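Q: Predict the bound structure with iron/sulfur cluster.
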Amino acid sequence: MNEYDSNRIYDLVSTIGFNKTENKKEADCFLLNTCHIRKKATEKVYDEIGRVKKDFRNLKKPIVIISGCVAQAESIEMIKREPYIDIVVGPQSYHKIGDLILDYKRKRKKVNETEFDVVKKFDELEKIPNLQNKISSYLTIQEGCDKFCHFCVVPYTRGPEYSRTFKQIISEAHNLVENGVKEIVLLGQNVNAYNFFENNKNYKLSSLIKELNNIKKLKRIRFTTSHPKDMTEDLINCYRDCDKLMPFLHLPIQSGSDQILKSMNRKHDKKYYLSVIEKLRNVRKDIKISSDFIVGYPGETEKDFEDTIDIIKKVSFINSYSFIFSPRPGTPASAKTLNSLKENEKKLIKLQNILEKFQIKNNENYIQQTCEVLVENKLKNQERYFGRTRFMDPVIFESNNCEIGRLLDIKITSCNQKNLFGHHQINRKNVA
Ligand code: SF4
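A: Predicted complex:
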């Protein structure tokens, strides 16, 4: 979502005369769009500001802006602690960034703008075209979260669930496709909680997918990140009915232990999660699933951990993320007693080794097979290209006749844990 927000911030500041520069030292304005999910996010921001200060020691000071979730969480404290910062703006207020900069330039007065003004934000953003022209682009449809998992800061930094209007989203999707975008990734902190009412009609994520599926020049649709509780039948059936919806889903479970899931306030148990996977596989046999895992959540026993290993084996997850639990200030879990770090590290290694085996097996299954790849870009100074399979697997391939944005048949010849390698089957009929 930060990538989407950063691009939109760039669209906004372009309207007041700012351009991107690759040369940091010539910048008039320095903006850090921050994320609060990872450990020590706040300290990393101050470290970065330290580097900027050093770089600009003998130069004209740039306007320094901190945006995103760290700005939301820390607010005015950031300016108090580091007066080199000029503007602090939260993720639901960044539509005001142009005015904030102009105001600051006039008055030289520090600004803290951290209101939850999400409706206004999307109304304002609608007036500025989304100029992303990457082959695969993000499109935010929903923000915030009402789930309040005990380890997570999102409900506090992004606020309550808010769904953009159906019309706004479809119009932005058409613009993106006209700009050359071939794949749209619908985004939300809780993307499948998308829920918008207008004229007695209820629009859900499934309504958006069905509508996007009709856009002729659009080739692929994905969405992220989903909560298991919101994997409703209508959404699951999209995997059967919408040919452009790719057969890959990132569905975080966090733990395979019912006791830990309860303590995390996840609102689902292991049985329910497995029932969702079963329904998905009933409508789309080849669907592949990735997930997130938190290892060493406070109170996690050996048995709880083994339950997580058990579900990994049952589902055969690919491309998953795993971390040791680390407390986020202000969340209920941050008040709990931490498990031994040494034990947690051992568990994480074990879990990641198992995930790695599934990932390698997944990649090896491609060898000598031909698969459909959406070509995203050419690698710098090489006759090699980068694209992704229908299942999101990254592919690096050789070709001397390749067009960015096309779906091509690629013969996979080798792999490592992260990438597939192959070549373009020039003589095969390519998918237009
Ligand atoms: S559902 Fe996701 S975003 Fe919402 S609180 Fe839980 S982990 Fe955070």
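A: The CA atoms of residues 319 and 361 lie 12 Å apart.
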